[in-house]
Design a protein that fits this description.
The chain is α/β, with parallel strands linked by helices and about 240 residues long. It has one domain: Rossmann fold, CATH 3.40.50. It has 6 helices and 7 strands; from the N terminus they run E-H-E-H-E-H-E-H-E-H-E-H-E. Helix 4 packs parallel to helix 5.
Length: about 240
């Protein structure tokens, strides 16, 4: 999509983990970035660190599962930066449970953040990208959006849904020069997976996902990538 300097990106869940690493990488490229998250304390702590890597940062508390809050965040970004070139739907949650033990609360929680959130963000941002005749939506999905595993039924359902949303967005956005890519990592070393059955030191690093985002954004306008699957070394 051309030189990244001064381009504008919105990153959900930018206060920690993968979202923090992506935001840091984008700021270092000279991009202007708006991040949101539900935990204002975590966001402000991240802001202190992130502003060391770039001055053009908007930080705003917002719950992506609430469309009114998404709308306010996007309007604030437009007001400050004037446009939106990139949306990274990164915010995600996971609750591991066997099928018979999935509660309504756990199911709703994961569907709301992992699927409803990206849908709302895309709905609000698409009119701006269509008006600009261009943009890039990157959805941080999961290997669990490609394959189901024991104990991940609700989480996998939300991520399979995100993959389907990505496909639909790609088809609908193509005539407006809007690209859509889903990134599907395995276990990434973040606080969300502290109880994962994989040693922390063997997990994918958040910075690996950030590098994948930069790779996508640096491709020419003629190249399109449907999805990127990132697994741990030695996995098939």
């Amino acid at each position: 999509m051309g030189p990244l300097k001064a381009k504008v990106a919105l990153v959900t869940g930018g206060g920690s983990g993968i979202g923090f690493a992506i935001t840091k990488a984008l700021l270092e490229e000279g991009m202007r970035v708006a991040i949101c998250g539900r935990d204002e304390g975590k966001l402000r702590k991240a802001e202190t660190e992130l502003t060391k890597h770039g001055k053009h940062l908007l930080v705003m508390p917002a719950d992506v599962s609430r469309k009114s809050e998404v709308d306010q965040w996007v309007k604030a970004a437009i007001s400050q930066f004037g446009r939106i070139d990139v949306l990274v739907n990164n915010a995600g949650v996971a609750r591991w449970s066997d099928v018979e033990n999935i509660t309504d609360e756990h199911l709703d929680y994961q569907l709301n953040v992992n699927l409803r959130g990206p849908l709302y963000c895309s709905q609000v941002i698409l009119p701006y990208m269509k008006g600009q005749q261009g943009g890039y939506i990157i959805n941080i999905s999961s290997i669990c959006g490609k394959y189901g595993f024991a104990g991940t039924a609700a989480y996998s359902a939300s991520k399979f849904g995100l993959m389907a949303l990505s496909d639909s967005l790609r088809e609908e956005g193509a005539s407006f020069n809007i690209k859509v890519t889903a990134i599907c990592p395995g276990f990434v070393a973040t606080p969300m997976v502290t109880d994962a059955p994989v040693p922390l030191e063997e997990m994918i690093r958040p910075e690996d996902i950030a590098k994948a985002v930069l790779f996508l954004l640096n491709l020419s306008e003629y190249a399109a990538v449907r999805e990127i699957v990132i697994t741990r070394k030695g996995e098939g």
